Write the structure tokens for this entry.
Amino acid sequence: MKRFTAVAVTALLLLTAACTADPDDGDDGQTPPPQPSASPGGRWQPRPGTAWQWQLTGQLDTSVKVPVYDIDGFNTTKEQVAALRSAGRRTICYVSTGAWEDFRPDADAFPKSLLGEGNGWKGERWLDIRQTSALEPLMAKRFDMCRDKGFDAVEPDNMDGYKNKTGFPLTSAHQLTYNRLIARLAHDRGLAVGLKNDLDQIPDLVGDFDFAVNEQCAQYEECDSLTPFIKADKAVFHVEYERSTNEFCARSKELRLSSMEKKYDLGPWRKPC
């Protein structure tokens, strides 16, 4: 389940390149470590423990000394991605693949028959992921955008509609089919792809995805469910909003998760383990 996504406010807060200091960075200020090697398929493959920054709102802070940035795909420009790349960063393109957002430039391209119940966030509605023939070209265009801007990977959000009240009779089988379609669309474009939450299906999907992105597994006592990714030598990028680092970092380090504390707005502030 998507427990929090701050992209609704990005329609008003465009990300623009800047170097602003993070007041509680927690990193050592050194040059980011060498980039992980590519997977056998030639894609970028982040390894367990890789440090990261996740920022979806506010003025983009490019000063955080980490090798990976996860940022909004629509609001980040090609030039910003290039600047991060030239500084030695890998970039992950955030896009919603399981929910419609009325503030995106392609919102009118989605047929009304695809739109279900609201997912709890202003301007967002669940998508009928059973309609893969309608959704595939729409998501392909979004992933083309990520590729053309120079991103290394995609973070597809809202990947667990079948566990929520969407307005559609979605099953776990529908979700598996759709999530594998999303992974294929990314891989066909040379992009790595992360599994967002969807913990129950990790055993079935760990082979299809290159890393995982998780919110609040410590708060909900679910972090052990992510170990299949670690055992497969794939990073788990993890955040907590309502737990301080002294409450979850010890366990995160044991599990080799890439963990940090963030605020709900997913702005530049971060406190890593």
Remarks:
- The chain has six helices and 14 strands.
- The CA atoms of residues 113 and 128 lie 8 Å apart.
- The radius of gyration is 17 Å.
- Residues 1-26, 28-37 have pLDDT under 50 and may be disordered.
